[in-house]
Design goal:
This protein is of the alpha+beta class. It has 3 domains: 2-99, 2-Layer Sandwich (Double Stranded RNA Binding Domain); 104-215, no CATH class; 236-439, Intergrase catalytic core (hpI Integrase, Chain A). Helix content is 38%, strand content 10%. It is built from 16 helices and 8 strands. The protein has helices at 8-13, 66-81, 88-99, 104-115, 132-140, 154-163, 174-192, 236-242, 265-275, 279-283, 318-325, 351-362, 369-382, 387-394, 400-403, 424-439; strands at residues 2-4, 20-24, 30-34, 40-47, 53-60, 290-291, 296-302, 310-315. A 5-stranded mixed β-sheet has the order 1-2-3-4-5, covered by helices on one side. The chain has a 3-stranded antiparallel β-sheet with strand order 6-7-8. Strand 3 (30-34) and strand 4 (40-47) form a beta hairpin. The longest helix has 19 residues, at 174-192.
Length: 445
Amino acid sequence: MAKLELTDAFIKKHIPAKREDYVDTREPGLTMRMTPIGNKTFSVRVRSLDGVEQRVSLGAYPDISLKQARAQAAKKRAEIKSAKGNINKVLKAEANARSEAPTLQELIDEYKSLKSETLKIWQSSKKSDRSEAERRIQAVFAKLLNRRVVDITADELADALLGYIPLSGKGSANGQTQKARLYLMPVLDWAAGRERFRASGRKRLPTLEVPDLRDTIDPASEDPEIRGERDHVLERDEIAAVLPWLTYPARPELKMRMNGIVDVRPIALKFILLTAARLDEVVQMRWKHVDFSKEEWFKPEVKTTRGLPRSQTLPLSRSALDLLKSLPSYERQMPEALVFPSTKNTPLGNWNRITKAIQRQSGTSEWHRHDLRRTSASILRLIGTDLGTIDRILAHRIDHSREGTSRALESYLSDLRIVEYQDPQKTALNSLADVYETIEGPPIS
């Protein structure tokens, strides 16, 4: 029996000539048994309160990591030292507790019941009983949902993340796996009583010995678009090349067959440029949301991951209003009708196809619909719009620390309207429209 500080490098590479036990000098009692054929198992040795030496198996490497083995050894040592006689009673009690532990799905249900009132991602949608967080987690971790959560290892979670195959048939699903990992992480932290759930009153009782998703790799960690490092904006010549193709009716050269109905997706993309709105907000926009007398667009719900759902009222520039009035459905303005509908009067889709067609005809490449929103925000900054106004146009939560104000200020502010005063957002958006008008090249003949 040799004594040394166990390391991952030693455990991975060392193969003894005969069965050998190695005692960790860093964690008292932790022992690794190795055999010539490559078997490697962790156990903990300790004497109970009445002097009886106990040896309890912890598991095989690499199913259980060195870090996990040390943590479990410390816990077992404390349990055994406080027990009299054989450790079987302790093990039996622990086995009973494990059998009563919830499955991963049951734990998710528990967390949802607590958080659905305050976190939008845990609120069921109008079309489904499942929330955004549930859909992501259940898709990626489907094979683990019916397992007792205390029996799931970090390696199994990692395998689910790395092995997920999207239903779309794409080669990877970095966005999907990243969100599933992000949404499940606080569920497990709450169950274990760690990180921001350490304080009494925040953690689950009783706490559970569950893996930490921070011990798994994020498959999206090397994807710049998913990491949020994508910062592409269209240059002036690219904007000049793209704008002539963002028209209604859509140019026939784009070759978008719409069963005889003119494609409104190009003009919807121009509306994104004029408003710096998100694609989904434009897709879901209905005529009842537009007040032409006040020259405003009311968005019932804007993207948020924390707190209660929020709405936004966005002033519209002269150019944005003229664009809406150019649409054939403007004259009817059926309140519930979509402003930018598909041929079946349903929300628009297949954006990749129209984007590629515009890129092909304009001689541009590698831009995404969200880059149009980013381009508009960048132009607003370039022409001197203050950051707070840009944040409000983008429907971001205001950074009070940056503006030098307190969070409490919001409770003192209301949506006051004075007709003689023009909203800075409207002034900024009118200036943005002027920039695009200046950049846009001559009409395509």
